[in-house]
Structures are given as C-alpha cells and as structure tokens.
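Extended Data, panel c. Modelled sequence:
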Amino acid sequence: MRLTILGGGGFRVPLVHGALLADHADGRVTHVVLHDVDVGRLDAVTRVLAEQAAGVPDAPVVRATTDLDEALRGADFVFSAIRVGGLEGRAHDERVALAEGVLGQETVGAGGIAYGLRTVPVAVDIARRVARLAPDAWVINFTNPAGLVTEAMSRHLGDRVIGICDSPVGLGRRIARVLGVDPRRAWIDYAGLNHLGWVRGLRVAGRDELPRLLADPGLLDSFEEGRLFGAEWLRSLGAIPNEYLHYYYFNREAVHACQQAEKTRGAFLLGQQARFYEEARSPGTSALAAWDRTRAEREATYMAENRETAGAGEREADDLSGGYEKVALALMRAIARDERTTLILNVRNRGTLSALDSEAVVEVPCLVDASGAHPVSAGPLPGHATGLVCAVKAVEREVLAAAESGSRTTAVRAFALHPLVDSVNVARRLVDGYIAVHPGLAYLT
C-alpha cells in the first residue's frame, strides 16, 4: 500500500513514519512518497526517517520528490500536511493581527482566516489533481485550518477526504485518565467544529461519567483543561471544551498574553525549526537526535501563554508524545483492512448537527470501515454552543467564497463577521495588512 505525504519535509512527518514502523500487519503501508517544495527540508526529514528505520527489516520504502503529480500517481492514501507560506507566513499572521489588538492564532480568529485564505486555493488545486491522478485514493487532511480546508477539498473529492486532529483525542484521553477509565472502553460524546468542540459526556457501559468529574473540584484541577478553564466555568457549561475555546472564553487575557510574549508562537517555531533543519543536514550529526530534542521542546511549550494566563502549569508528561499520527494510522487501517473503529473526525455533516447544512464539515465521532467515515447521530448542541458554531461556520463559508471569487470585499466580510474581530474597520485594515505581507493573497482584489 502506498502513502503519499504532502508537506513531506514537515517537522511532524517522523511521527507518522514512526507509527508506520510499528505496524507489521498484512496490508500495511509498504511505500511512502514524500512531497515538498523545499528540497532542503525534504533532505533533512529523509535523514531522520532513515535513522528511524535502521534495524527495522520491513520498513516502508521512502522516496522524496518535488513533483506533485508524480507524488500523487498511484497513491492509495494521501496525507496532506502542507503549510502555505511556511512558518514565516504564520509569524506574519500573528503580528498583523496583534498590531490591531486581535488574536492571530493560526486556526482561530484573524490569523486562522488569513491562513485559510492562503491555503484554500492550494488545497483545492491538490484536490482536483487527486481526483484526476488518483481517483481511488483517500485523502487524510491535517492541513490547518483543518475543518475549513477539509470542506474546501470535499467539494471536489466528496467523502473521500477526511480531516483529522489530535485535540479531541487528547482531551478524551485526559478526561478518561482522571476518571480512572480505560479510554478504549469509553464513548466520548464530542461535537462541534475543528478547534471548536465540547465533550458533553463520557459513557462507560451505558453510564455517563462526566457528571462525576464536573462535581469534583479536585479531579477538575488535576488535568490541563480543568486548570485552563477553571472548575466554576466548566460546571457552568456542563461540558469540557476543546482547549482552543480558551481563545474565545478568555479572549482578552489571551490577546494580552500574546502581546506581552517575547515572541509569538510562529516566530518561536520559525527560529526553532530553522536550527533543526540546519543541524539535521550537517554531516556527522544525528538527524534523529536533533529532531527528538526539538520535538520535546515544541510539545512542552504548546499553548504556553494560555496556560500561564490561567495558571495551569506545565503540560503532563503523557501529553507530550503527539497523537495525530495514531489517529491517521487507525483511520488508514480501518479503511484499508475494514478494521471497524470509532474515531473523532472532520467529515461532512449529513444531518449530524441539526443547526448546520448537510455539506458543512463538522468534528464528531464517526464509525469507520472500508467504505469510509460515517458520522454518528448526535444530540443538539446547547444554544450558546450552537450560536458560536454557526457564527464560525458562516465565517468559513465567507473564506471559501473569497478564495473562489478573489473578492476583497468578501474577505473583509469574513474577518468582520468573526466573533473575535470587533470592528469592520479593523477587518478592513487586517485585509490590507495581510495582502501587504503575503504574496499568496495578491489574488484578492
């Protein structure tokens, strides 16, 4: 079975490769094609993968290319993890937004919109190429903003594109851990959009264990989201939000923390990864050791400003080992081998959340088998969550319309309608600011 990884020079590719190396069952991935536009990054990551595979007799054959069409031909699965504009683009997204006093995070608020406007045209081109060159392939999308990009690609690939994210999986695992429950035996009632969802229940043998967690301040204070949001607010919601909702519920504090930070997250990662790629290509050094050190620092500092604002402390050791690669492998196994499983994924709604139309991509539990991912019917979200989900989905639709039409007016509307952008005038300045720093947004007129 052949897997093509778009963004094959990306820093997190070794996580996927490591998961593949641990899979020795029949029907496993035997060939991996890495595609990237940056030859230097491809060379560095290829060195890391070679060290990972040392001593593994049935390791997948790895090949790298900068030719997108060549990478796609013959693929059974396409894993999309591209970053249009690179980390430099992410740093620009953050700075332009923060200069206007609004959030520049890469998937939330103004930063997420700017990233989406850059990424959607490229993702749509990829989807069209997959439909032409590998029509039987399944596309697994991790490119951010994951829900928005998955919806853009689904207009050309239908249900053969599925978005993944490790946030819901990590949240469910943490809740199960503090409740003393085996996550494999628990049904996680999770619903929303990517980076905008809530755990509403955790059922074991038909019993919902979440009320026990919400009623116990000690348990709530024992895991990251409990400390991040605070016991009082979680009990008020009657649910556990995805960590990214901290940007909505505590927006003023989050923006202030980002403004006061020595570096934005994008600027930090830009410098950190530049050092890694330089070291990984140096003769006589271990590219794998360099990657391990860099990854540990990256994971430990994830959402550091939010945790500092809330007094949430350091991340737990169990949460520093990644997770999206396990979701990707479980998804591929379920489809390729008909190993039926349940995963929280980004798929077309199909009536799952009654407030949204059928084609809207949502993040919900799905039953996965050889025919793909099938969203499980879910109860309606409470009014406050429905309002937020509908508002953000409306913004996503404006982003898609702007990317398709090239309309600056539509792009302004996308920014202005977002709950975290507080003025139409700010929205106009954001669009002008992003066009000025991003060549990839020159299509907006």
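The two ends are 44 Å apart (CA to CA). This feature is highlighted in the accompanying rendering.
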